Structures are given as structure tokens and as C-alpha cells.
Amino acid sequence: MFSKLPPQADTKRKPLLVACGLASLGLWLGFPNDLFSLPPLILAWPLALTVIGQSATSARQAFLYGLLGNTLGMTLVLYWLALPIHAVGGLPWIFAALCAFGVIFCLAAFFALHSLFLFLAGNLPLWLTALAGAFSWTLLELICAPLTGFPWLPLAGALVQWPVCVQSAAYISQYGTTFFWLLATLCLFLSLARQDKPWLAITGIMLLGLHLALGWLCLYRSPLETSPQGSTSMGVLFVEGNIDQNQKWRPSLQRATVEHYRRLTEQGLASLPTSDTLVIWPETALPFFFERKPLLQDFVRQTAREYHCPLLFGTPGYGSAAKADGIYNRAILLDTQGATLGQYDKEHLVPFGEYTPAFLDFDFLKPLLQGVGVYARGENSVPLSYGAMAAGMLICYEGIFPWLAQNRVSQGANILIDISNDGWFGQTPALRQHLYLTCLRAIEQKRWILRGTNTGISAVIDELGRIVVHGPEDQAGSWAARARLQTQTTFLHRTWHLQLALFAALCLLMLLVCRSFRKKSRQAENLPLL
User: Fold this and answer.
1) What's the whole-number mean pLDDT along residues 170-193?
2) Given phi > 0 = left and psi -120 to 50 = alpha, else beta, which region is 371?
3) pLDDT value at position 529?
4) Of 3, 18, 275, 285, which has the highest C-beta tally within 10 A?
5) What is the 3-state secondary structure (H, E, C) of 71-84?
6) Quick one: average pLDDT of 447-459?
7) What is the pLDDT of residue 359?
8) % residues pLDDT > 90 (the chain)
């Protein structure tokens, strides 16, 4: 499969089509989906794209077949992108599907660069092919977030469904974990496929064994705590309103929405033996400007006073210290007397959900902006504190960006709280995909995460990325749990910037080494160097 196919061969496309199918199946079955998920299958995705790059007869062929495999798989995994465009944006299904496909196609083209690079690298030694493939893929994942703004499909995001596979993220981040899993897989596969270099297969097996041994040791040393107690623990009450995304922004329903959350809070607290439990209402639970509705504002503050509970809730906010007239996606923390302890304005905004890029500022996209228009970017990420708790805030989409959690812990957070509203996506795999991506932040920063949502999935995640308890989907209600406050930091947290610089240097070195081997190969074949 790895040998260059002669142009005249009628079957030259068969290995490439098989690889496309394997890439699509690995991508679909590796991530949470509507059928079943087997996380290790995600490794078939980059493996198949590597095969395409090594088997193609031209750069164009390598890129197009990589694009085809990615497009098929990503459509199966990300089809839910069309739902909010249709249901909230009001576009007919055909146009909503085209918009979603546009996003998928751009991502597919981006990761097809992996196949292109492996083709351009030429006929490298097996060990160097494995290294080049691992570096290429990891680099693409690393720059996907700043370049595309939608880093939804990291390999570690699928593997975290089995926490034993990703404990190395506490030392080398999700990107380092991706690198070593892929390197081990490529070493093993290339050796077996070529029936050569048995030491390479042994190296792959050893890397896999070390990863799993580290994961088992971490989990063994920290048994799962379903209800941690003591001075370093805290109680929490999650309230899921299950408010219809198409109804919540109607002004006539604002009072009813607050009463709904208040009633669910009362029901949840009634079953608790003690007060002083943090109550969490999800992102934009209050569909109005909190500062500009004094009567509803008093009603919310009264809830905290009456039930003697600190209350954290999401709401649109107007104005801040940095921008007097800005509109923000805001989280506010009240104390047991209803006084404001602090607020956090969302830092990383969602394209189309919270703002429309200037080059796509069309009227038909405006309904997607959650009923309030374009949000401004927050600039203050200091933890929200109450008692011993110093909560590093993440709102919805922010849970998938490693450096945001890194920054929260750097500022003193001893727990992470992610309030979200995934009501846009109905009963689709998007809810589980989002939850598992957030689990990676717990491992990387050794912090428990409290995740409160509108329609599900609310959860408590421990510092090893294990889902301790979780709530239902699409069901209004409230449920209590406990979490632990932690102050120690991970090796990754202490060396974050150093690791990024080291990886950049290694990528540059890898490019130079590959270029050197390619040049020697061209000279040996007496061909011009491109």
C-alpha cells in the first residue's frame, strides 16, 4: 500500500479509496456519535491520511483524497452544525446544510494538509516517516484553534472517553498526548505493513505500554471520590432550566424564566441537609440585561438571600470597566445576602453564536446571535471567590481551549466552573463531544470542573478527567453534588510556554531533516529538486 503506484495501473485508486473509508470510519466511531463509540478507533483517521500521503502519485491526488476522507467523516461527526442554523437562524434545511457543510469542508481541507505533507516528504526511512507523521498531525491540531477558531476534533478529545489513555496530558498537554499516541501507532503499523524494522514495532508497543501504565498508575493512586468531604471540598446544586432556545428571548417570558429557575432551586435545596451550597444556573439563564431590569434583578438577589446560598448565573451584561457600552456574555456571582461578589465576561467568543465575522455580516445570520446582538470580548479573567472557593470561569465554548484554563489556574483558581448552553444542538452527539473536550482541561490543570448547562449535560469532573456524576439531557430539574478544591499545579502548567517553544523548535528541525532526506533521494534518482 505504501509503494508508489504506476500511473497506468487500473487499480491505483483502490488503496486510496480504502484509506478514505478507514479515515471516515475512524473519525466517526472514535468520537461520540449516534451509534456507538470506540475511542481508540480515532487513531485510524490520521493513520489513513498518512497512508494516502505515502501512496499518492501526485501532490494533488494526496490532498484531494485526504480531503475526501475528512469530509465524509467530519460530516458524520459534525452534522449537528446545521441544527442551530435552521432552528434558530430560520434558514431552510437546504441552506442550513450548505452553511454547515462550508465549515466542515474548510476543516477537512485543513487536515488534508497532513496527506499533502507526507507526500511531499518523499520516501523517508520508516522511523522518520513515523516521526514526520506525528509531528505533522500535532502541529495541525496546535494551530487549528487560532487559525480556524474551531478546534473541535483533537485526537485526545476522543481518547479522553477512556481516561486511562490520556493521563499524560497533565505532563505534556493534549497535544503531547496526541503526538505520542500517534507516534506509537505509526511505528507499529509501518513496521507491520512493510514487514521490516521489527525494532520499530517494539518501540511502538513500548510507547503504548508506557502510556497505559502511566494512566493506570494515576487512576490507581487516586480512587474515584463520588462525594468528597472535608475542608477542601464544596457542595454544588446544578439547576437545568431546559428552556427552549427559540422561546427564551421573548420579553414576555422573562419573569416566568426567573420564577422557573427559582422554583427548581427551591426544590433542589429542600433535599440538602445544609445550606451555603453553591447554586449554578447555566449560561444566559437570565435572558435579559441584569443591570437594566431592577425588578427582576431584585427577584434574583432575593433568591440568594432567602435560601442563604451563593448563586452563580449567566446573563447578558451591559458595560464593563473596559468598555462602557459593550454587550457581554457574563457570569455573575452573588453571596448569601444577594450582593454581587464578582463577574466574568466571556473572553473567547463563538463565531456566529456570539458575533458574525465582518465578511459574513448578512441579515439572515443575525437571529443566531442569541437575541442580543454582537457580544464584546471580556478582558478580566480573575477567579470569582466565595469562602475557600476561587472559581476560574469558562463559558461554554471556552472549555475546549487549553490556554484559557491554563490562565485561570495561573490567576489562582482552585476549581474550574464551565457554564454552558448546548440547547442549540438538541439530542445530538454534540452534547457528549463538548463534555469530553472539557474533561481534558481537568487533567491538564489538575482541577475539578463543575459544568452547569441548560439542557445537559451538567457534570462534575474530577482532576483525572473522570465524570464523577452527571445530570440528564433535555430534562428540567436540579441535582446536588460535591467537588474538591485543589491548589497544586501540574508539570504541564509549570512548563507550558517552555513546551510550546520546544515543540516549535522540534518541528523546524523535523522539516530540515525531511528536506535533507528528500534532497538526497532526488539526487540519487537524478531528478530536479522541487
Assistant:
1) 95
2) left
3) 33
4) 285
5) HHHHHHHHHHHHHH
6) 94
7) 46
8) 67
Would you give the DSSP letter of residue 230? S
Based on the fold, state whether residues 334 and 376 are members of the same structural domain: yes
Residue 342 is which amino acid? G
Task: Give a yes or no: residue 410 inside a domain.
Answer: yes
- Rounded mean pLDDT, 363-387: 74
The residue segments making up the domain with residue 405 are 233-488
Looking at the structure, do residues 168 and 238 belong to the same domain, yes or no?
A: no
246 inside domain: yes
Q: What is the number of domains present in the chain? A: 2
pLDDT value of position 15:
84
The string of pLDDT tens digits covering residues 75-122 is 999 999 998 877 766 778 888 898 889 999 999 999 999 999 999 887
Pair type for strands 449-453 and 415-420: parallel
Q: Global pTM? A: 0.91
Mean pLDDT (whole number) for 47-57:
93
Residue 200 inside a domain? The answer is: yes
- The answer as to whether 226 is a domain residue is no
Please state, in angstroms and rounded to a whole number, the distance separating the CA atoms of residues 453 and 369: 18
Examine the domain organization and report whether 280 and 327 are in the same domain: yes
- Provide the terminal-to-terminal Cα distance of the chain, rounded to the nearest Å: 25
Residues 341 and 208 in one domain: no
59 burial level (CB within 10 Å; 0-12, 13-18, 19+): middle
